Amino acid sequence: MEKSIKFNGRLLLSFIIASIILVPTIRLKGLPGMRLEQFAVVIGFFCLIVKVITNKRVVLHKSLFPILIITFSFFIIISIINGALSGYNVIINDFFELYKIFVYCGLFIITSTLITKQNDKMFFLKIINTSIFVTSIVSITQYFNIFSLNELYIPYIAPTQYKTLINDYPWPRVIGLSDNPNVYAVIVLIGCLSSLGLYLYNKQKYNLLIMIINFIVLLMTRSRSGFLFFIVSSVVFFFLYYKDFIFNNKRNKLKKLFIMFSLLIGLLSIFILAFLILPKDLTWRIMEIFDLKNSNSWQLRLANWQENFGYFLQHPLLGIGPVKSIVYKNAADNEWLLLLKRYGLIGTLYFINMFAIPIIKYWREINKTIPGKIYLSLLVGAIFYMIPVAIFHSFQLMSLILVIGGITFANPESLYELKLKYKS
């Protein structure tokens, strides 16, 4: 019986991971885009209710993060009320943000509940790595438009981003099975970190080959924000992995500094070598990071920020809520600005602490594992990525990051039995 439950749990979580990475967003006219893993969370929630009502044994993960993210709903509601009192029109779609909280919390709890051993953590990291590698193969076919397959399906999975992948566009930007090259860039950088982490864990060399392929596909997205995310998260990952070696008490300070400097130089040399070897078709757009003054895309983003910044200044403390009834001239193109406008300084500070507090409390446990190092690296990289692009408001990205978070925080000691006691 226990083996059957274990198998079913592995099957469910593998299905969720594959759905996040391999299944495009389902779009129906007049409805928000839906994703397959969301249905899994909703069905799981109703099964949980039935089990509790029928007084069956239910075991769930218990830790700080689920409580904190559920509490974030309070700040969403307060900001919506503040927006309504300020004269903004509140619509039903504004409350869709609460559904996001439900899905994110559900994915985290499902993941952290189903994983009870260290081997389970590495097993599901392999599932993530394999799934992302499959999308990398798909992306390579997109880049070269093999057999003109792009024209058959790309417009359906990426209705706003398909033009660079059809009709022999000179600078294609691959999307894998996502709907945006910037979103997909984060998917493949997670693939890079997971394959690197697996190599460091089991020393199987094929993981290095997968990492190299994922890195090339990352360049095929031509995403500057994604590449910056990759640089930051890679540096953080290497630091976390080698920090015990670097700061070994037996070494003097000079040796520690030399080791750290050598690692940074080595990492930088790898990036420079990659840019020298790879064709300019893959690297020219990313090189614009070093010349933002002359980057039309970056300058346009700066101009677009002004509109949303104006709304933030009107209500800096509590924000005005999602207020999706407003017809904006330009997209925010800055998730930090979007959070400030929606939830104000108070809500945004809570948002930051929602991730920071659990890390601080469980630091000793989570920074010892490969999934923990990947999760921490992603959160640090996200700080910079969120300046031009969104993560929390991207169902695909946030779902995958929180699955990795669930893997990170999973611990048999954090499981508790949920059971209603009826009086006879």
From TrEMBL:
GO terms for molecular function: ligase activity. It comes from the Bacteria. Residues 210-352 form the O-antigen ligase-related domain. Coiled coil: none annotated. The chain crosses the membrane at residues 12-30, 36-53, 65-86, 98-116, 123-144, 183-201, 227-245, 257-278, 343-362, 374-391. Pfam families: Wzy_C. Keywords: Ligase, Membrane, Transmembrane, Transmembrane helix. It is a multi-pass membrane protein. It is found in: Membrane. The keyword Transmembrane applies. GO terms for cellular component: membrane. InterPro entries: O-antigen_ligase-rel_domated (IPR007016), WaaL-like (IPR051533). PANTHER family: LIPOPOLYSACCHARIDE BIOSYNTHESIS PROTEIN PA4999-RELATED (PTHR37422:SF13), TEICHURONIC ACID BIOSYNTHESIS PROTEIN TUAE (PTHR37422). This is O-antigen ligase-like membrane protein.
